[in-house]
Amino acid sequence: QVQLVESGGGLAQPGGSLRLSCAASGFTFSTYAMSWARQAPGKGIEWVSGIYSDGSETFYADSVKGRFTISRDNAKNTLYLQMSSLKLEDTALYYCVKYSLPFYRDNWYSSEEYDHWGQGTQVTVSS
Asked: Which of 74, 113, 120 has the alpha carbon at shortest distance from 96?
């Protein structure tokens, strides 16, 4: 069965960095687009970043553009999110999410096409 296991979360100071990883199994990782989403306490889901199955294109929310970088290693079945210049408002539970196609059909943040979620990894930014 599909498994998405996030890791790398933790406590960081404002301006600091963290690197999230998502280990995927149970499906052919290289043939699906993947994304990161997050949920802050008391708020809804925010789509953070997405990447095509072959890594040829990436997408970012305006709130993280220029600070976060998404990447993938299809040989290792792993998705990454490098987070830099962290802000207090980046505090959230971060989810790795599998899309149902190699490329996004419409908008990369259209949630109807996502079919599997990981359990999440907590990122807390605090001084």
From this structure: 120
DSSP code, position 89: G
Neighbours of 104 (CB within 10 A): 18
The strand pairing partners of 25, in sequence order, are 3
Q: How many CA atoms lie within 13 A of 39 on its CB side?
A: 13
Assigned token pair, 71: 């990447």
Q: Per residue in 26-45, pLDDT tens?
A: 999 999 999 999 999 999 99
Nearest Cα residue to 45 out of 10, 86, 92: 92
Proportion of the chain above pLDDT 70, given as a percent: 100
* Structural element, H or E, at residue 115: strand 114-117
